[in-house]
Amino acid sequence: MTEAVLQLRNVTKTIGKRNIVDNLTFDILPGEVFGFLGPNGAGKTTTIRMIVGLISMTKGEAIVKGISVRQNFAKAMTHIGAIVENPEMYKFLTGYQNLVHFARRHSGVTKERIDEVVKLLGLQNRIHEKVKRYSLGMRQRLGVAQAILHRPSLLILDEPTNGLDPAGIRELRDYLRKLTREEGLAVIVSSHLLSEMELMCDRVAIIQSGKLVDIRPLQGYKEDPGTKVVIEVDDLPAARRLLSKAFGDSKLSMSVSGQALEIAAERAAIPDIARMLVSEGLDVYGIHAVQKSLEDQFLEITGGEMVV
Amino acid sequence: MNLIRNENMKIYRRPRTWAMIGILILAVAFMGGVMKWDSSRNDGPAPMPQQNAQTQEQPGGQAEAEKYDEAWAQDLAQQNARLQEQLNRTAEMGEEQREWMTEQIKLNQYYLDHGINPHDLTLWSYVDNSAALILLITLLTVIVAADMIAAEFSWGTIKLLLVGPASRTKVMLSKYISTMIFALMLLLICFAAAFAAGALLEGFGGINLPHLTIGADGAVHEGSMISHSLRVYGLSIVSLLMYVTMAFMISAAFRSSSMAIAFSLLFMLLGNTLTMLLSGYSWVKYLLFPNIDLSQYMEGSQPLRPEMTLGFSIGMLAAYYVVFQLVAWLLFTRRDVAA
Fold first, then answer.
1. For residue A88, which of A4, A202, B156, B159 is within the disulfide window of CB 3.0 to 4.6 Å?
2. Residue B10 to residue A90, Cβ atoms within 8 A
């Protein structure tokens, strides 16, 4: 297994008596887009700000490529690029001057590198205009440009889709994909927009009230044992008897409407189920696999308290 | 250091900064213009009151004055005669006033002997007077300093600035140094502009004129004008430094730049009034403001409290300086950036 780019160990922030962030521990692997999901006020932004040192940790440790953010802040930051909330830039400077400004902080960012990043993000046409004339989408891109100038191993985007229109969000998503592919970096994205996360991320961590609720991969979830097969037949009790014999009682449940049976099984099991039911003389009206969307899972996990 | 270059870029790429420099140069030009206009107005109708004065003058003074054929010299001689008279006549004069008068007489006599008109405008008069504009420079620098940290908060750029491979201490230091470079630049511009205005209006004729002072030994000394001007500037820089450092601390304390600017200017402008009001209490000497003007120990004028000395003031200023820096540093490096 490759070494984690970022390791969080028992990261805790206490304000007053409340734990805003409570004992977070997880790893981020190279090359993955890691979603950080939670309702508003769950502690996403606080966690991210602790990773980048904007907020001090009450307890715990964030380790970037083996370097502790707490003990060796400056060195750890050479591996991180970040946009915290909106990409605020110096509006009285041009886009290029802004990039020069941020490039100067790192050693070894050449002029060629700046041009390369500008091209990568498609900013070359307007880079010498003042930032105050940029649209929000362009500022967002400039923010990403600023964050990847020094070839970090980890890119942190806090609520990157805030205030972007759907086209802008899509654009950002494409750039992120391109970046992970071309620059091979790991990305942490925080958001409360589920649909966004579903499209963007390889893995998501779900936090609520500062606590880590779950981490799950997104690409593989279709083969998740959590998938259900819904069966509509004329004789439900008979079907139930048959299926419990074949799969065991624990995997069976009646659907909400009471018109269908639900069984925890994979998609591959459907032909077998159909053959079995038909051979027993039952009339089958429909059999289909149901995937729980991330939203369903998310609402289930967080107890449905969130507002999307 | 690159961080300082960054901060400089942020200062000089703002149109505001150039407006400030423009204001400063305009102020110097305006001052020069007023001085020139004022002196030419005095030159014109001067003979008339001169006549009146002469007729009213004591015979002794007039006799003395008639030895000189130029108006300014006659004036000076009369003034000397008058002073001498007063010195002889009034016995109940305070020791200090007596001293001041004798010194004045000596200075005037020196001017007479060497044929120097002290009221003639020379290049140096402009440079000297421009030292008064250091107050303006302080004002402008205080605005910049107060904005330095607070503006990053109001722009929201503080987040990006701090998420970089530089510790907060370094970021703050770079900002402080840039502010100081800015102040230094304004001072140089002011000096140069005043020098240019003087050269333009009066020519380089007076450039070698000595600056006269009465030493402790009671004799008249010639000093070079440039060292005198530099000393006037140097003393003003002390107060500039203190005000700017204070503004910098306030900047670290507030997240809104307008608040920071407002408070810094308020302290700067109200400070002196406040200490004047409180000057009856002896603890007032521990405040910043009565200590900030070190020239009070140079020109023979009275400090606010009789027990204050130059050493005391320097000590107080140093203490305040350290406190300002420390508070600014603590505020800036310890704070969570949450907004």
1. B156
2. yes
Single-letter amino acid code for the residue at A101:
H
Strands A18-28 and A6-15: antiparallel
Q: Tell me which amino acid residue A34 is.
A: F
Q: Residue B26: exposed, middle, or buried by beta-carbon count in 10 A (0-12, 13-18, 19+)?
A: exposed
**A79 vs B41: CA distance, rounded Å:** 70
Mutate: best of A70, A71, A72, A101, partner B, most B CBs <10 A:
A101
Domain assignments of chain B as residue spans, ordered by start: 2-37+122-334, 46-114
Q: Any idea which fold A228-290 has?
A: Alpha-Beta Plaits (3.30.70)
What per-residue confidence (pLDDT) applies to B119?
62
pTM of the model: 0.74
- pLDDT tens-place string over residues A187-198: 888 887 777 777
Beta bridge partners of A64: A6, A67
Instruction: Work out how many CB contacts closer than 8 A connect A with B.
Output: 81
Which residue of B3, B159, B337 is in closest CB contact with A105?
A: B3
φ, ψ for residue A93, nearest 5 deg: -105, 160
Q: Per DSSP, what are the bridge partners of residue A187?
A: A33, A155
Residues in A closer than 8 angstroms to B165, CB to CB, are 74-75, 77-78, 105-106, 150
The rounded distance, in Å, linking the Cα atoms of A189 and A161 is: 10
Test B338 with A54 for CB contact under 8 angstroms. yes
- CA dist B186 and B191 (Å) reads 9
Rounded to whole angstroms, the Cα distance separating B285 from A147 reads 51
- Compare all CA atoms of chain B with the CA of A94 and give the residue at the minimum distance: B13
Closest-CA distance of chain B to residue A204, Å: 24
Residues 6+ apart with CB under 8 A from A277: A231, A233, A239, A242, A284
DSSP string for B54-68? HHHS-HHHHHHHTT-
Rg of the Cα atoms in chain B: 25
B47 pLDDT higher than 60: no
Asked if the Cβ–Cβ distance from B338 to A49 is below 8 Å, we say: yes
Distance from the B335 Cα atom to the nearest Cα atom in chain A, whole angstroms: 7
User: How does pLDDT run across A28-83, given as a tens digit for each residue?
Assistant: 888 888 888 887 778 888 888 888 888 888 888 888 888 888 888 888 888 888 88
* Closest CA of chain B from A298, distance in Å: 27
Instruction: Tell me how far apart the alpha carbons of residues B315 and A50 are, in angstroms, rounded to a whole number.
Output: 41
**Domain positions in chain A:** 6-218, 228-290
CA quadruple B319, B321, B322, B328: dihedral, nearest 10: 140
Query: Strand pairing partners for A94?
Result: A130
Closest by alpha carbon to B137, among B183, B95, B82?
B183
Residues 108-167 of B with CB under 8 A from A: 155-157, 159-160, 162-167
For residue B320, the SS3 value is: helix
CA of A15: which chain B residue's CA is closest?
B336
Element (H, E) at A64: strand A59-64
CATH of A6-218, picked from 3.40.190.10, 3.30.450.20, 3.40.50.300, 3.40.50.11210, is: 3.40.50.300
